[in-house]
Design brief:
The chain is of the alpha/beta class. The protein is built from eleven helices and eight strands. Strands 1-2-3-4-5-6-7-8 form an eight-stranded parallel barrel, surrounded by six helices. Helix 1 links the parallel strand 1 and strand 2. Bound molecules: 1,3-dihydroxyacetonephosphate. The site of 1,3-dihydroxyacetonephosphate has 14 residues, from strand 8.
Length: 255
């Protein structure tokens, strides 16, 4: 089996001003400066990217990520931000197709694929989010939903670029609810996703793609989740706003 370095990303969502962000990042750096076993990504709002970029510039293993981007490289798109603008601030990652964007901003699988491609073309690693809602899980439809999201939102991306793409499985019913998927439930879906990637590309590629779990990851459930064979990291919401909790999750991700 290919070695996959764990990746723990903090999605701050719409929290923290630039001033507050500086304080939180300073705290995170104090907590995690010794942890170098996993890739660590901080995804603040756009308005804090420049400030954080300066703070983590020299720190190995901690990288900057954005929470969204526009699929075009420039033009008359008021209020939007392009991949090139993110690269210019030394972003290395960008979250694409988070369920909140799918739900509130009506982002489709097709748009998400365009955004992922725009990110890859600019040398940004997209973290593409997929996951079923509670109703879909209860109707036992999760395989259908995940298959559709992978078929339409990921498959078709150039084989030369696909290994830089990260998938985040975030069951919508587990986001911000305190109700995480059990490690077994999450592992089952992650394994299924890897199978879909193998079908579209190859087993060799599938074994290299990193698949994060997201949804109420906390220090007390991180270790069990992160040590499942197909779970390669975490996309952390609420707990990433607390330096100690985030550091504990990073620590739990060690192989
Ligand atoms: P919570 O960790 O707050 O459940 O959020 C998960 C998430 O949406 C990360 O992108």
């Amino acid at each position: 089996m290919a070695y996959r370095k764990k990746i723990v990303a903090g999605n701050w969502k719409m929290n923290k001003s630039a001033t507050e962000a500086r304080v939180l990042v300073a705290d995170i750096l104090m907590e995690i400066k010794k942890f170098d076993a996993s890739d660590i990504v901080i995804c603040p709002p756009f308005t804090s990217l420049a400030a954080i970029s300066e703070l983590i510039n020299e720190v190995p293993n901690i990288r900057l990520g954005a929470q969204n981007l526009h699929q075009q490289s420039n033009g008359a798109f008021t209020g939007e931000i392009s991949a090139g603008m993110l690269r210019d601030l030394y972003c290395r990652y960008v979250i694409v197709g988070h369920s909140e964007r799918r739900q509130y901003y009506k982002e489709t699988d097709e748009l998400i694929k365009e955004k992922a491609k725009a990110a890859l073309d600019a040398n940004l690693k997209p973290i593409v989010c997929i996951g079923e809602t509670l109703a879909e899980r209860e109707a036992n439809d999760w395989k259908k939903v995940i298959t559709r999201q992978v078929d339409n939102g990921i498959a078709g991306i150039d084989e030369k670029q696909i290994e830089d793409l990260i998938i985040a499985y975030e069951p919508v019913w587990a986001i911000g609810t305190g109700k995480n998927a059990t490690p077994e439930q999450a592992q089952e879906v992650h394994h299924f996703i890897r199978g879909l990637i193998a079908k579209h590309y190859s087993s060799a590629i599938a074994s290299k793609i990193r698949i994060q779990y997201g949804g109420s990851v906390k220090p007390d459930n991180a270790k069990q989740l992160l040590h499942q064979p197909d779970i390669d990291g975490a996309l952390v919401g609420g707990a990433s706003l607390d330096a100690r909790a985030f550091a504990a999750i990073v620590l739990a991700s060690r192989h």
